[in-house]
Protein 1
Amino acid sequence: MVHDSPERPTPAPKTDGKTDGKTDGEAAPKPRRSAKSDLPQDDLTLDTSDVDPETSATEEEDDARLPEASEDATETIAEGTLSIGHEAIENAVRLAPTSPGVYRMLNAANDVLYVGKAKNVKKRLSSYARANAPLPARILRMIAATTHVEIVSTTTETEALLLEANLIKQLRPRFNVQLRDDKSFPYILISGDHWAPQILKHRGAQSRPGRYFGPFANAGAVNRTITALQRAFLIRSCTDGFFESRSRPCLLYQIKRCAGPCTREIDFPGYTELVREATEFLSGRSHAVKQLLAAEMEKASGELEFETAALYRDRLAALSAIQSQQGINPRTVEEADVFAIHQEGGYSCVEVFFFRTGQNWGNRAYFPRAEKSFTPEEVLSSFLAQFYDDKPPPKLILLSHEIEESALLADALSVKAGSKVEVSVPKRGEKKELIGHALTNAREALGRKLADTATQSRLLEGMVTTLGLPHTPKRIEVYDNSHIQGTNAVGAMIVAGPDGFMKNQYRKFNIKSEGLTPGDDYGMMREVLERRFKRLLKPPEGEAGKPKDRADDESFPQWPDLVIIDGGRGQLNAVREIFENLGLTQVSLMAVAKGPERDAGRETLFMPDREAIKLEPRDPVLYFIQRLRDEAHRFVIGSHRKLRKKDIREAGLQEIPGIGPSRKRALLHHFGTLKEIERASIADLGKVPGVSAESARKIFEFFHAQPG
């Protein structure tokens, strides 16, 4: 789907009096690269709040984790409890309206058990109140737990559907189908607030002027497409500030991924034409764009301008690469989302394909939480309403199964989109083939997830045997610290459970204690753990006594079963003392000490009141513990580097001992940017006028110091 955002006045290109219309500045992209990249990167923002959720530890998005197996549908219902539930619902029926609305069933603790909608609320609640009605065991359990009902009236049934979806996503009721891992989707933005538009990946509110193309299934699909579009259309991807500061072309110009508008390697009309071609391609007119490029290639070849012809050839190859990566590109479907559901072993997988402008912009698997008694149609119906709660729907939605309220859903989404939305189950032709392809992907995705979950479960069970844990851990938290001589100290927590690493649960902690001695690892760990567990120990407002587990998902608690730290017996004793001071007795502790010369496979495990544990180098449990520790180390080092780079940008080169304003100017004049200074070797730094060999060494060591 293409969105235009309101444009602000576009500043004209700056000129310096020359007749070629060139401007000052530079275009450099923002690819994800290592610290040694020679390409400029955008500023990294860092949230310095007390606990900062890190939800994008990797650019490729992981599938949602598989939910805990649902409850047994044959569970016995206590007759007395069921009668209390019927009585509570009967009381609600007396006051219920006969108009459309949404109802919430709550238990004695005021937790929402179920959110439902109805065209006639009174009639729907009456169906629950009948004592001898043949209802599924899932509904009977819900009734038995209900103590009161809350009702919200709406004007239309369409409004009730939209409100129900919103409340389910907010409240996560136990007896509803729950959409999980609902991350926002990325878009491609071609900006409209600069004379030389920028191409970039965008998430969130579409407030910046320009044209938005999407959604794409994941960030990886966007990154691959942008890289290919740069090769095909040579559009810049650098920030406006970086663009304006350039005096010579960057590396992207040299490798033919940017036209170099920043240093006037291309004039304004020429760059505008490139932007127009890119917009046409993303808008679905790819065939016309490729025909134009092919004609230009033939023309240049006929005029013996072989270098120009080769440039057009490479651009055509880049466009072909985009379409080949997209796989299926339907001929008869311009804009649609395709949903297919597969159920197996009590679990559901919904595979979603996105088609925009006749192109396949990726697919993604979801694993909604639903009890075994839900049919595919029921899961899909509830999933769709929640899926589009915060997303613009396309013109066409194709489903693998007929859902009961498809007409109502189409009306609700049409209201939301401001244009007609069609919901259908294709029976033949290309659309039916798209559904079949999505069903195959759903079946394979669920199979992979079930296999991964089984492997992870065996490892967790192995930890119980090997480490003597009281029960199989559902939540493992691993902690690590990072700093350089006490500066930019940061702590981090990673989380793992039955379905692997839970990256949306990761946290980083900027160390705030002023009294810490630089490099005091014990003090840093004390601050991190106290900040983490004091939050859990503090009861919710209005409650007292035993701390309440405030997790949204009962299958994956907020309280850890096992805490792992990087260190030896000393670190273990320090953490044990912290836990004793906090009154934590139900959490198992373990420290992992590296082997001699940091040799992986020779680690020693320490647990309270036990002898040190040495596992065989090829023990699967040891491999698993190594993975946990290494993931914590990776995450904390990344967090530390972001914090340190922010400080370097703010303080500049003057933070380096012996580097004053004169040498700073000389370095920037020679290399152009701080990023290029960072990647320079000692020999390159020594070539700068006024920089001695000793100064070059200090500069290099400043940028390449290893965090502890």
Protein 2
Amino acid sequence: MSLLVVGLSHRSAPVSVLERAALSADAQVKLLQDTLAAEPATEGAVLATCNRIELYADVDKFHAGVAELSTLLAQHSGVGLEELTPHLYVHYEDRAVHHLFSVACGLDSMVVGEGQILGQIKDALATAQELHTAGRLLNDLFQQALRVGKRAHSETGIDRAGQSLVTFGLEQLSAGRAVEAWAKGKKALVIGAGSMSSLAAATLARAGVGEIVIANRTPDRAERLAEILSGGDDTDVAARAVPMDAVPAELTRADIAVSCTGATGLVLSADSVAAAVEGRTGSPVAVRDETPATDGQPAPAGIGTDDGCPLDLSAVQGASGFSVMGEAAVAGMDAATLEQHAAWVDKGTGTDERRDTRGTPDADAELITALAATAATVGRIPERRRPEPVSRVPRPTPVLALLDLAMPRDIDAAVHRLLGVRLVDIESLAEASADAPMAADVDQVRRIVSDEVAAFGAAQRAAHITPTVVALRAMAADVVANEIARLDGRLPDLDDKQRGEIGQTVRRVVDKLLHAPTVRVKQLAAEPGGAGYADALRTLFDLDPETVAAVSRAENNTENAKNRGRA
């Protein structure tokens, strides 16, 4: 059997695909059950976070395993297989181990070095243990991943390279200010009471907010979280729980709102957010104009061409030597149009036509004639000036800061356009973290991961031969017992002391003969390519394959019983 992982994350798929592929808790349970029902897999575990969905399995066939696991992910995520496949990645055996260990250390996180992933790996293992889908391989793998992650955080400064999504999101909301200074005394609304929402509430409490309101579909969880926050030794915050239908009213009072629920639809629409801000400010919420501008001035259409010219071209098409960029074109224009045309011509200063005609005798004569005719018509020479910069609608200081950590999203993306509201969601966090600096300790963490992958592989290969060694020793014990029984029949006059000495001597001889080969074969099996030593041992000593399999099953049952106790 071999370890296989098939998944997608923020590194392989856009947020829109991750959002649609997100798995609810019930969907994860059904996925695990169907994974074990599939022929290639004997163990399974799902690691599902806001920015990754990964299915781990112990399979006996690589290609069949990849096909089956990919199909199962597509079925349970609701994203078609053809659409999902380009975003999937596959890791096998040592590469799969390396991937999970890197994830546990925060190297593969959206924010490098964040430690929240360790709790999510622990939850994934606990779920697999409760459903009895994690056998010896996945139990060993996930428990070792947790140890590797803790080692990386304790032995290096990887924590300096990043932080949890909650902290990173709050830093984005504070727009450069220290989170503590920005959050101090504010009123916060936290929607949801799961692990991410609880982390957000605790982070806000430590940052110094004055009040935290918890809204959750299950009131008991919201009340329990509120009690924990209110009774914390390291915080001084007033916390209370409210039902979900109180969210619109609480949003009107809130300065900060964090949402992370398991809802499949939107929790906060753009209209509900706009209504909350209007209820707070007493004035309608303006919508931000998304039309790009350049230096506060509109870009004229087709600078250096006839496009955008204020002159009626159809009336002067027959004019000899006419050019919309030449001053002769202005004769007979009213003052307002003259100013518009002058501004338009001035915007085309860099064009080839203007550069070629300016300063020539013909152009000078043309200019004098045009200006004289214009002065006679309108009574003055028009000024040629640049237009006034287009006044921008000032963006007000946000009165409501929203942090959406859910996948799929809880808050309508259209909220980005509401003036007076600042929204940070998974997509904007992904963009912001792309340029985040990585700590020098990352290289040290990578070395830790490589060393731990090698150690895990050696341990697994050594464990693979253990049932064979146990079966060999059991066979030797049976041989000793049979020979002692035969000796008793041939020498019935031996007393108990003599019989015991003879039995002990025979067993000691057998143990000494087996000790060096079994120790050495475990060492050899732990090395890369050492899997064949178990087969060699079975062949040399003519061991019954069923006996070896029975030993392996017994060890797995014992291990699973321990794991159920841990869960």
Protein 3
Amino acid sequence: MSPATSDKSPAAVEPESALTLLDRDHAILAFNERVLDWAYRPEVPLIERLRYLCIVSSNLDEFFEVRAAPHLAAGVAGDQKGNYTVASFEHLAEAAHLLVARQYALYNDGLIPAFASQGVHIISHGERNPVQRKWVHEYFEREVRPLLIPVGLDPAHPFPQVANKSLNFIVRLGGKDAFGRENPIAIVKVPRVLPRVIRLPAKVSGGKTLFIALSSVVRAHLSSMFPGREVGEFSQFRVTRHSDLAVDEEDVRNLRTALRQGLEHRHYGQAVRLEVSASCAESLASFLLAQFNLPPQALYRVHGPVNLARLTQLIDLLDEPQLKFPPYQASYPITLSPGQSFFDRLQRSDVLIHQPFESFGGVLAFLREAVQDPQVLAIKQTIYRTGTDSELMDLLREAVRRGKEVTVVVELKARFDEEANINWAEMLESIGAQVVYGVVGLKTHAKMLLVTRREGRQMRRYGHLSTGNYNPRTAALYTDISHLTADPLLTADMEAVFVHLASQSRLPKLHRMWLAPFDLHRNLIARIDALGVAAAAGETGRIVAKMNALTDEALIAALVRAGQKGVKIDLIVRGACTLPARVPGLTDNIRVRSVIGRFLEHSRVFYFRQGSDESLYLSSADWMNRNMLRRVELAWPVTDPGLRQRLIDECLVAYLHDGRDAWDLGPDGIYRRVYADTHPGEEGASRAIEAHGAQTALMNRYASRGIRRAASRD
């Protein structure tokens, strides 16, 4: 059964085409609008609605840290030509302001009243009774004041360095200082170590669930920090800085040292956004804009805390299970049996694990067996994001202790995980593992684990390939595919890639894999073009591709060509997509949808069919220029017909028929939420998917399989 039917923007797909691509940065903001929709849904548990609001705030932080600087620079310089201009800056600022306004409107008018109806309150200074004010005062004196040093500005005390995304206060003071001078402006920096949300103890809460914001605690005690002065106007503020580390790898002797030095300066990069309280006086806002060299469009007046993302602390403090999603317990991989040897199992056939519906614990169990098996001689693995507390890294350390040859390719430049990866690399090197950092100028984004085992008189390889990271925490939150295999051709390709990354030697011709930056891009375009040629000759052509982002212009051009020749194309793109769908006369045969659910859609699955001949590839790569040309990425085929059909059903068909959590992209570039199956009559439709969404249907399917298997064991 087959499934139902450069990062630059805007730009034309090709000179002869009238199709103009959508703007990538606006596409990123549109994705966050779709995430924010979950926070608006009344049927979503209240704490989860707050969580989605926090996710959007965190996403916006990263957007400004990584994407805003070129637009800002163009706006300040008055540039009128190029990819970044005054117009691009103004349009992006307008869209961002609208999104932020929606966030705070929901927070104040929707979520705060909803929490109050459940007996959960964040109380301001004015709402606190005398007993509560006394407790807050004692808390401030004990926990907060010792960490604060207010800075009065004068020639000897210039404006202090303010760290990226930190909480601060600006205060206008009346009167004179201890030396008889009028220095009217002071800054109070609030350390990151302090919790942003504090729960009032039962003894002062009157049996209610009461919280206070740290900003409210500081605000209530501003006067006490400036004895002898009058505190007039004041505001909390927060500055976001450009934080994408730039290191010239060709010009450094030690990449690890250069990155560690760069991390020290990340918190003090170019300012790109300033957030202040909505009530902030115009004079104070203008003063701050001047200090950070920002134009008025970079100022965001917010009706609430300047960092909504830190409200995740409130989520952690609330023990209200009825206000959360029911806990989901991932099943043990259905094609594996606990206690069975992975090596015996993989000699029979490959295994797929669909995370998080199936547990990432299966991958850890595979590595654990390899570490404990005396016949395993070598383990090779790529590391991109593992987190700071990783059982997987502990297993690699144990493998070294047991005398196995351990080679780890650590990507030091994994954005915002650089420090954790540097620490892991240093730890592994210190105990004798072979640690390499990939290829200069490229990020190693491929996800591979290769085990070499002595079996009689021969060596046999066993491999794990994945669309996602080796991170147990995110493996419970992201949809990904893990592929375990003993296929000699596929594992030989893995070995060749590891040797290439470690030795920088010429890569031999691979048997099954496509590897970026060498042939992945070229092979994808060739496969798409071949389908277009076949369709023009009268054969049926079909493409269904699932990924996180689609912005590469050459791949988009190939898709447009194929669609114009009759290939039916469905693209399931979670995030930014710059290809406009269903544009009459141009992309009539291309449909684009985004699915936003409880879990983050992260798997990359590419399906191609020409007549009755079908192929399916899994990949670590999104269809972006950087992934194709500036990263080490993998795509590999799933050749087992049963496993391939399972991927078609679960990763493609289910999402094409999702009637609850999907958004379809219109020819006007606007996403509209789907409220019913939009692929009626096509093979694979499911009432469960239409009624509950693909993810919920898969959760139910795997839960029932787990129950049946447990019952059969009993």
Protein 4
Amino acid sequence: MTVHERDLPRPSKTHAVTVAYAGGEERRGPVTLGQANMIRCMLRDEPEHINIHDVWPVPAGTRTDAVLDALRALVVRHEALRTTFPEGAGAAGGAVPREQVVAAEGEFTVTVLDHEALPPDAGRYADAVARRSRVARFRLDRDFGLRISLVVLDGAPVFVALAASHAVTDVSALGVLEEDWRALLSGPLPPQTAFTPLDLAAEEAAPAGLRRSAASLRYWERIIRTGPQAMFDGPGAEGTEVGTPEVTLRSLRGARALARVAGRTGGLPSTVLLTAWCALVAHRTGQSACVAAVPTSNRFHDRLVRAVNTVSQDALLALDVRVPSFDALLAKAWGAALDAYRHSRFDAVALWEMIDRTTFERGSRFARDVVFNDVSALSGAGGTEPDGPDLELGRGPVQVLPTRLLAFVHETEPLLRIGLWADPALFAPGEAEGFLTGLVRLLEAAAEGDVPLASLTGVTGVRPVERGPDWLRTDGCWVSPPAVADALGDALGGVPVHVAADGAGEGLTAFVASGGAPLTPARAHAALMHVLPGRPGVLAPRRYVIVQDPPEEADRTDAWLRQHILTEGNGRTPAEPT
């Protein structure tokens, strides 16, 4: 159940506490690739969509001054929390700053919300407080990177509820901060050994870092040229920003099954879960590969695991599921995941320039449809709730997301705890819950023995999407030739168009009746690419054949082939006339 603003209890007293800190080192230097990537998103997206939040339960018996002292020590410990970007005010549409500055001293504010009573589900209320703090844009040039509220009951602190600037932290970093803050409540911590943002920026600018970034672009280009342009296609998969309700899973059954699969196969639990997820996503979408962004998994470097920084650059996983069984897929998954992790640090501007060039040449629009975020290693939740439910499904707040299927794995033991956002235009009521239940069923079946992938419908209860007879798989994608013809005809002002698969099944050919108007393959391709966004079932033809008039039997490819050809080409070649 979502907590609405009107339902929030009102604190009996609210006051702000200014916390001063000192003892850090003043530094400055270039921004990291991850910071530049996330700042670009912050300047483009609505703040409530790009800012992040977290809630930290306060251990019982902790005094307010101890909470504040630990927060102060946390800020001194982590340079990211003392960082601003002097060239960037944070206004929408602004330029991405090139430099970051770390302060040696300063101050931040904690808003104390004192209550005489809290609702029964106080944690959900604290989450609503933190979520409310996300709605204002962070000023990059001057704002402290955390907006902190302390939820207090009769003078005793109960929760730290905070929103964070994505320029200085990501979800994994918030997990590290919570762990460090809890430890600081008891005493000092050993010196920090993880990369600071400036350390990481220096490594990225070194020759080895530049080679790694270039290799990442080549890796991404291969997937974008050959993999599915979108995991979801057809009606309902249009548009970009989608309001999506959260579905939550808490399951002892799932955690126990996951551990048994890992024991039976020798696979890491994280890899087993990723394999099961990919198998079920590819099954549901009817794709031959699961292409998914796995953002938190780029912390594979020892000094990045516990780095407080925004390392939020996608690791792009492409796992070919054309194998007979779960165990065979698991054997491939670790290598595919490692390949993705190794190629997850790149210049975001260069990446999108490559994507724009590659998709124009392929005639597609890359869609970041599926996101799998496993933050369980940094959740600090292990060992909690040993008496949790066998399988419990719940509902959380609606979020507007630029993706179709997003999963956050918060915990894998002793509970399997996952938050799922599934586009309601693609998942009918109850289907998102059924998907999570199906994931648990797949793990339970795989715990007993190898599972044929052809049996997933019966094993999981999740049915593949149904496509009509006009759909075909070509060039690694599901495509509707009639939809391509309609899109191309509309883009060219309503001229007759016929689209057919070529003889090898590796691409499409478009026949266009220009009616005598000047038209070239290059103009036809450019017009189609202009209207392609939001049409995931449309892939541009590999060849455009321009004729003057359509044949009488306009639905027959052989009839179009008998027409006099005015010009033909792929539409991508610069030498072709425009």
